[in-house]
Structures are given as C-alpha cells and as structure tokens.
Batch of 4 targets.
Target 1
Amino acid sequence: MLSHKKTLIAFIAIKILCFSCITKSFTQQIVPVREEPRHVPVLTNKYIRVIDAEIKDGDSSLFHVHETPSAFVFLTDVVYDNQVLNMPWQKVTSKKGYSWYASYETGGVTHRVVAPKNNRIHAFDIELLSKYSIVENPNWKPMPFDTTFTSNRCIGYKIQLTKEKPMIQFSGRNPIIAILVNGEEVTINQPDTKVQIGIKEEEFGYIRPKFGCTMKLKKGESAELVLFEIK
C-alpha cells in the first residue's frame, strides 16, 4: 500500500513538472526585436535603427517581432534553427554577405532562433523608421555599383575594394549604412562634416546624407562591403 502511494505521488509530481514546462513554453515573453537581449540597437536616428544581432554557441533568442520595414545582411556562414511562432522548427542557411529587404506590409513575423554549438549567427537589421525623401525625387538614380536589391524604401549595393581599385567617392546621396562584410579595414571620410571613421570586418559606419564621402581600403588586399541607401 505504501509503495503504491509513493508511486502515485511520483506520478503526480511528474505531471506537475510536465505541465509547468509546457506552460512556460507557451507563455514565453514576446518582445519587439529592438528589446530582444541579443539584438542590440547600436544607432538610432530619425530615419533608421541599426540592430546588431549576434547569437552564439547553442544560445537561443526570445520570441521577437519584426514588423518595421527592414534591410538585413548576414555576416556569418552558418546553418541554424529557426522557429516562427506556432510553427515547427526549420533549418535556415545563413550566407555571409547575403542581403535582402522585408517590407512586412502584410504583417510582422514573430520567431526565435538558436545558434549551433561552437558557432554563431551574426547579422545587421536596419529598421527603416521613416522615409528620407518626403516627395519622390524624379532625378534620383542609384549609384553605379552592383545592386543586391531595390525597393521603395531602400536599395542595397555590393562593393569590392582592392589594391588596384582601393577607393570610391560619391556625394549628394541619401543616408547610407556601410557594412564591412569581409576583408581589411576601410576608412570612411566626410570632410565637410569633419568625420572620419574606420570600420573593420563585421562593423558598420553611418554616412551622412548630401555630404561628399570617400571610402578607402586602409591596407591589405581587399574588402567587401554592403551599402544600404535609404530612400
């Protein structure tokens, strides 16, 4: 009789524990992407919010919501686990340097991601908070670089600097986020603003609108960059 009672108590305890785990999984907090602890806002102004997202070594993000039009770029080659809310887990392949745009016009996306053991996911999410041009400029044209995507809010460029062609220059442009995907340090110089910065691999720089800009390979063989120009 005593043995039966102990078994019953153990069975009830297991049921309570299982219920607690299930409840926890279904009540996990859902937050805006800018409030997710592994998605860190590193620059915010009138037009953009730059979010630096890095998840390492088996760690998981919280469920978080993407609902603001955004440009993204992957900075690591990795296969990771992704779960959209109320959907099964899926494998996703991150390709370093791949960039894309998401409008979220038909609704946001709520998901969480898990990095594989001994590896990491690193990406930038540039949320487009407001348009730069209130009225569309009929004279505006893309810069003469390879484009990765174009939309009504943003355009993505891919630029390669080498020892043979170590520098590019432009002026009169809209706000730009420059991200060094691969390679050696690049300097970004805007003399009229008295701003000069250097960016290394997996870092970003903000290029102020209208002012002239020179981007130059500081040293080494090459650098690959992704630029997002806000419309």
Target 2
Amino acid sequence: MLKKKNSPASMDTVIGEYTTIIGNVDSEGSLKILGKIEGDIKAGGDIYIESTSTINGNIYGSNVYVSGKINGNIIAKGILHLQAQARLYGDIEVSSIVTDEGAIFQGTCKMIELPEDEAAATSSGKSSSRLKIRHDDLDEDSTEI
C-alpha cells in the first residue's frame, strides 16, 4: 500500500525545481517550493519545501512541511512536519512538531501556544494525539524527556 503524502488540494504558487530566487518571497496563500531560494519566505497559508529544494533564509507560515534542506529559522503557527529527507539547520518556534525517522534538525525549539481561535484556524481538522512539550516544563539539567 502506498503511503499518502501530505499535499494540498490546490496550490497558489509553485516554484519549480530549476528555479532560483534571490530575494524574499511573500504570499497570502500557500507555497510549494521545489527550487532554490536565497531569502526569507512568508506565507499566509501552508508551505511545502520539497526534497529537491534548498532554502537559505527564514520561513514564516501556518503549517510547514519540509523534505528539503533549510539553513535558517522557522516560525509556524501550526504544525512543522520534518519528513524523512528533511535537513534543518536553524531554530524553530512552533505550536506542534512532527519528525519522521531520518530527518535531521540542528537548532533550538521553542513551543508556542496559540489563542483558541487562532489554533482552530490553523488546524487541519484531524484529531490525533501529539506529544506537546512546553519549554517551561523542561528542567535545564535534564537530558531526557
């Protein structure tokens, strides 16, 4: 049985595999990136960083799905999903994180809590149990969770 990949029903903007953008990218909708971007990415919707992509800059979005390589920070109001091929070198600030086996993340993580109305707007409507760790709950001397 084939594993279904998270992909949107429709995509506002697609940046192709053989495209390089030097500069910032701003969108009110969703983005799917297959190419290379040297700059910050801001989207009002979801951001999909595919396995062929390389990003050198910060990313700001609702939900961020990563399969490619990122050198920069990520702020996601909803889910950050690091898929098996993901390589993330930077800090993250998210309300929820999912990592697949094989993903690499080097940086610090800050968990944020959204107000109820914002959390409902960014959720996908699926109910699942996720481990949520608040930064305040961790012991500074603790190495295990």
Target 3
Amino acid sequence: MDAQGRPRPGLIAAALFYGAVWGLGEATLGHLLHLVRVAGLPGLVMVPIAVLIMGRAAARSGSAAAVFLAGAVAASFKLFDLLVPGTDLLALSRPIQAILLEALAGAVWIHLSQWNRGPVPVRRQSPEKGRP
C-alpha cells in the first residue's frame, strides 16, 4: 500500500500476470492431468509449478498479498474449464479450493518469512593493526 492506502501498481501487475500464468497452466495442463485419472498425478505436477509461480510473484512484488491475489486470479481462470463439454462443477470445485489454499499457505509463508527476517545485522570489520 502507498501513503494514500491504495495498492501499489507493482503488486497488482505482478498478481495479475503471475495469476494468469498459473491459471492458464491449471486450466490446460491441470485439466489434462485430471483426465488421465491417475490418483495424485495432478497435485504432483501442478504444486511445484504453483510454488514456483508464487515465488516469482513474491519476488517481483515483495508482498504476500500479491501471492494470494495471484491465487485468486488463477482460481478464476480455472473456471474456464466449465467451457469444456462434460466438465462437472462439483469436480471443478476441488482444484479451485486447492489453488486458493495453496495461495493462502504461500501468502502466510511469505508474510511470516518477511516478519521474522527483521533487520539484517551488518558485521563491521575492524582495521588490522599495523597495516596501512
């Protein structure tokens, strides 16, 4: 947030961009992996991709809020799977819940790591005696 309480432009841009990348990946690759019907395969493939994208969103924006917003954007992109014939809304709700929970966990992780980091101590080197 800036001084006037508005979200920073970098936060919104990062959330929209990385959320769109994550959502398109979930809507395409995730949907295909769910069609294979191998238990655990979609999570095994998509969670590392989600963690990578959440890390990039956090690094680009420096904010935990951008991580959660990216997850909300990704979850909304996942709704495009409803346009595919034969997709059940109830079957689609679990991946959407998983995306939102991953985003929440990532945002909490980023927030706690920023909160615990605090100021970085600087170690001063004293000049060696006898050396110019």
Target 4
Amino acid sequence: MRRLPDLEALRAAPVRTPPLSAYTPAERRLIATLRTPRQVQRYLRALPYNWEHTLRTFRGAVAVGRAHCLEAVLFAAAILEHHGYPPLALDIESDDGLDHVLFLFQERGRWGTVARSRDFGLHGRPAVFPSVPALVRSYMDPYVDGSGRVNGYGVAQLDLLTPADWRLDRRNVRRVEQAFIDMPHAPLPMGERRYQQVLRRFQAFKASGRAVTQRNMRTLYGDQVRQWW
C-alpha cells in the first residue's frame, strides 16, 4: 500500500465547483436547504437505497430520488462544497472486496462522515474523532458480518481523484469507482481477537432473529452506537 496524501493539502486543493446558475431549480433548493453534514445525512437516510448497478452523479441521484453509498458521497460533496466543506471522500477497504465510500469532513479539528448504507452501523458519524484512523476504527465492529473485515483506508479529494463530472453529468460516471480502487490506501487491520469476539456476537444476534433497532444495536455494539448517525 502506498503513502497517503497529506490531509491538509487535500483540504486546500483547488476545486471545480460550478456556479449555482449551472444547477436546476430542484438542485438549488437542495443546496440552499441542506447546509450542514447532519442535514445531508438525515436527507440521505430518508432516501430509498439504490439497488441498481449504476454510478449516478449528484444530478442523476436528485433526478431519480435514490442513491447507494458512492452516489451518496457525490450527492453530499456537491451540496456541502457550497457551504465550505471540501469534496473529500473516505474509502474503507474490506477483506471481502466490498469497500465502503463516505463523504469526509472536518469541524473544529475533529473528523466525521456522511454516508448511505444498507447496514445500520455504516452510515455517517458526527465530527467527534481526533483523527481519520480513529474514525475508520468506529466502522470496524459494524463491518463484521461473516465476510466483511476492515483492513485499510484511503482519502481523496474528488476533483483531484478524477476528471469525471461527478456533479452534473447526466450519464453514469463509472470511472470514479475505478479511481477509488486505484488510489493509495493505508493498512489499518482489525485485530484477530477483536474480530472473533465481534463475529461471535454478530452470529448470535443473527441467529436470534431479533430486529435491527437502535436498542438492539446498543445491546450488540455497546455505547459506540451513540456516535452513529
């Protein structure tokens, strides 16, 4: 795995933010209404999950009204860059090859994420983590499902990562996904002892047939659930 880029350099890198006149009225309303990471997270949690094999831009996701994890990153980045947040993305690598991509932001020196997922514990996090590795570790336990296991992460600024128009193109931008695969990642493996403990708890919970609720997740994962959006 290669050396990760400097986070401060990524935050300060030039962006290709279009003027508001380039957006449709519906897109401008979203930009005007969703002004914080928390507001964008709530909007995405309410949005239907996209099960199609697509990679729509911000414009595409707005048009169809649904998004999967990478589409949600493009959605969040396109909105929040108008409110002072650089278009940063965090890619979490897993042993099963099913990476999770999240919008990454910093507030008051702390790191958080905005994300959409099929899994309860893989949505966003408030900006309470002192470093990106600490933030990634908060995803380790909920990633464990019998095949998933966090082993590393990478950070990118979307305009540096790809020349694709991930904001306003009406076509799929599949090369964005390949760019995430090809970008540098740092190792951050989940320890074997911790993995086995979490796996046993997850398998017992799954066998119990209990519903995935906030209360049951606290029983399964403990107080860390309080830091999950």
